[in-house]
Amino acid sequence: xxxxxxxxxxxxxxxxxxxxxxxxxxxxxxxxxxxxxxxxxxxxxxxxxxxxxxxxxxxxxxxxxxxxxxxxxxxxxxxxxxxxxxxxxxxxxxxxxxxxxxxxxxxxxxxxxxxxxxxxxxxxxxxxxxxxxxxxxxxxxxxxxxxxxxxxxxxxxxxxxxxxxxxxxxxxxxxxxxxxxxxxxxxxxxxxxxxxxxxxxxxxxxxxxxxxxxxxxxxxxxxxxxxxxxxxxxxxxxxxxxxxxxxxxxxxxxxxxxxxxxxxxxxxxxxxxxxxxxxxxxxxxxxxxxxxxxxxxxxxxxxxxxxxxxxxxxxxxxxxxxxxxxxxxxxxxxxxxxxxxxxxxxxxxxxxxxxxxxxxxxxxxxxxxxxxxxxxxxxxxxxxxxxxxxxxxxxxxxxxxxxxxxxxxxxxxxxxxxxxxxxxxxxxxxxxxxxxxxxxxxxxxxxxxxxxxxxxxxxxxxxxxxxxxxxxxxxxxxxxxxxxxxxxxxxxxxxxxxxxxxxxxxxxxxxxxxxxxxxxxxxxxxxxxxxxxxxxxxxxxxxxxxxxxxxxxxxxxxxxxxxxxxxxxxxxxxxxxxxxxxxxxxxxxxxxxxxxxxxxxxxxxxxxxxxxxxxxxxxxxxxxxxxxxxxxxxxxxxxxxxxxxxxxxxxxxxxxxxxxxxxxxxxxxxxxxxxxxxxxxxxxxxxxxxxxxxxxxxxxxxxxxxxxxxxxxxxxxxxxxxxxxxxxxxxxxxxxxxxxxxxxxxxxxxxxxxxxxxxxxxxxxxxxxxxxxxxxxxxxxxxxxxxxxxxxxxxxxxxxxxxxxxxxxxxxxxxxxxxxxxxxxxxxxxxxxxxxxxxxxxxxxxxxxxxxxxxxxxxxxxxxxxxx
Length: 868
Prior knowledge:
By secondary structure, the chain is α/β, with parallel strands linked by helices. It has five domains: 40-108; 115-246, CATH 2.40.50.140; 255-298 and 467-548, no CATH class; 551-597; 603-861, Ribonuclease Z/Hydroxyacylglutathione hydrolase-like (Metallo-beta-lactamase, Chain A, 4-Layer Sandwich), CATH 3.60.15.
């Protein structure tokens, strides 16, 4: 048989048919016939992330580097011998150790001349020179309220790269990044300028209470260990305008400055702040009230350059490429470059890095004619974030971003599979008889339904993590997504066009319409978005606070969810998933059931670290909870979040009562916000708290407090000398709260002299809570029969005006807690220590926990004792 008759060989003389890499048929064929693109990268990313997490919880130090090299040599030996499985496992272990080593390097290794080496826990004056890294970010003054003891004004935030520090009479070269906060408005410099700063330097403080946001960890993840503060804009001076010193690294900052000016000129005030936040990453421009509205409606991700914004930009560019506005290969490469530049331009935040990595993977796959799988794309994104900012993987924002992306990828796969199903002849016939208008309406309805369903799926999947981290769930986010998504898409697209055209100087009189039209559309879309969010936040029941699941239960929930997805369509899947679900339910409810059926515990007092203020949580063995005071000199909302975090960490969802010792704002200003988060049985005050004379002297603060109590329907009761509050009887006995001061008439003097003094007793152990007692009120208390106690909260934040020697002799405390925001040279702690009491300062130790029962008194703190 001749070669021409041999039909087994391919007809090589046939011309090859060139198929575009965007061809759906080719992509579908390769998806089914070949191994999914990039599948091994998933294991690589998992190994690297697990290694980074292991180093965070159990630092391995130099051991990680040594072990990674040793395991790599082991993998090489196994691979040469053809041991496939052994070499694969060894390689993953090597990658995990490499991830741990990289995370350890970024978290713990800093230069020898790092600025933080000159920073102390307490603020100290400093003079230094640094270069501006990014444009100045201005924060508007928070809303004026009588509950804020110290009014706050406008502030300016400057990101600096420190160059040198003045040490006496000479300048010392230093390095490191820092953020400078200036009281007032400062806008004299641009990125790349050299500035001289006269301010206060200190280390970024760690979280002082359970469930409190740890700014020290967040800043360390950004490679910043200290902070700078200036009292006035005059303390910052530009000494070199850049010029020859300006580098390409400064260009993004200069471009952001120019785009910000365009927004200020072309958009209204409130909408300009939103545009700055959404497109430039300057969230400080958004006011506190508006930010709270976005938080309550579950739309806070709109105010940052998140994956949604990067995805919208990439989708628009790819649509232009597919429409033939640019050559496909060059267009795809251009899209990759623009998306990467935009992610870096806006600061390289983890959500933007994640979205940019997904776009890059999709573009590379399109160039080579392959179809990337969702898990592989997320794996590449995780590796990108790990390389860029390893600590970001442990931040809630990045975790929620990856979780939402994974959910949307899964949801999109299901929707695409459903859309690929062939339509029946009858359905095609019915659709052909519809008018264009009806088709448009039906298409819009399907789009809205799909968007609403996708938002619902993401919300349900993210709810456990949201409840655990933020303790806030927003059902209003579901219907609101029908407005938020399209308005965000319009705002992002038209806002970028406005900023770019305006920055290029095309806003002249002759060509002004090129900028005016997109600016008007952007302003209108932002206005609709802002009104919709504010209306959603004001709707009753739009959001609610919850204690959430514990850390273990939350992790177990997502492990169960991953198991359910992996076991989908497997014969053994439903049975195993059901058993895992029962184990999860037992994990969630078993601890509370054991605690309820077990023996009664001890009385527990938590002295919350709120700075200069007071808040003490008293938990009785019977499950009762009493909060004594709730305030500080700082922000009422921030103080409420701190106290609420402590309550949620203890599983408290209802307070039997709140006792306010007296009418100083630093003892009650957080209560209105707490009433929105918790159910409160009653509020107890002294007979003098709301007297006309006191209310007239204290002004609007007490009126706001009374209005908040009445609005939430909480009963208000007065306490006086001799009153006793009794909490449920247990095997260990009842918990009794006795009022030791004042009586019905009180004493002559300031509000502090008439502070409520409470004695809490359980199982023969006592805690004394005297508020800010001093003066004649303290003299009257000391004239009573001595009240021996185990734990004393130092009156008036440890002030020496509260007669520490006399009070210590009268009550003989074994431990004294001082709740204050700064250390005083005349601190009363020495007086108590001289009489044998241990002194615990919330300024140094954070929250202090005391457990009292028949077995004795146990005291511990959130932080260990500071080294002398």
